[in-house]
Task: inverse folding
């Protein structure tokens, strides 16, 4: 099944819709910042917003964290990918966001293969690859994409390379947020 077919079939968990709306309202409130990134590299504003919410959206000030992984902008990243971006801290959120997308296009096999492609199917594939393809290799739905939909029940990497089949994601997946925002193929 393609990402688009799966997306079209996915149903939201009704009890989670208020939480999903909270996250999507944060994305919509910051659309101008995300559009600024899109203007430079073509990554759709909503895709930038999804990554931002997944990586730093739960923090008190999400614009104080790197788009790469949510680490503080006051220093280079310490988590994967480590040592980003080039230059001297502190970094602006925009510097970090542009570096995160450029980094993915250079370091990630999926992003390199799909460089410059931002159609719906390619964008969902890139979003899954942003978090890593460990779930796909295991044949289980990625919570990064499908949490809070009927395609995801449990199973989560609780640390780098440490998978727990009983762990449950506590944040909405990007496809759940996209559905609430009305983003369609």
Result:
């Amino acid at each position: 099944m393609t990402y688009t077919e799966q997306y079209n079939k996915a149903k939201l968990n009704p009890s989670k819709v208020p939480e999903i709306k909270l996250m999507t309202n944060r994305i919509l409130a910051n659309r101008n910042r995300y559009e600024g990134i899109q203007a430079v590299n073509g990554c759709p504003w909503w895709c930038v917003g999804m990554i931002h919410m997944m990586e730093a959206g739960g923090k008190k000030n999400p614009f104080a964290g790197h788009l790469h992984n949510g680490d503080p902008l006051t220093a280079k990243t310490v988590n994967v990918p480590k040592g980003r971006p080039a230059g001297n801290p502190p970094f602006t959120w925009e510097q970090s966001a542009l570096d995160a997308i450029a980094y993915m296009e250079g370091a990630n096999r999926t992003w390199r293969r799909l460089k410059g492609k931002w159609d719906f199917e390619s964008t969902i594939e890139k979003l899954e690859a942003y978090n890593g393809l460990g779930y796909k290799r295991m044949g289980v739905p990625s919570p990064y994409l499908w949490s809070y939909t009927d395609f995801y029940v449990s199973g989560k990497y609780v640390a780098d390379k440490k998978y727990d089949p009983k762990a449950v994601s506590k944040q909405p997946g990007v496809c759940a947020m996209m559905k609430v925002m009305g983003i369609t193929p």
Notes: Residues 3-181 form one domain. The first helix runs from residue 3 to 9. Strands lie at 156-159, 162-164. The chain has a mean pLDDT of 96.
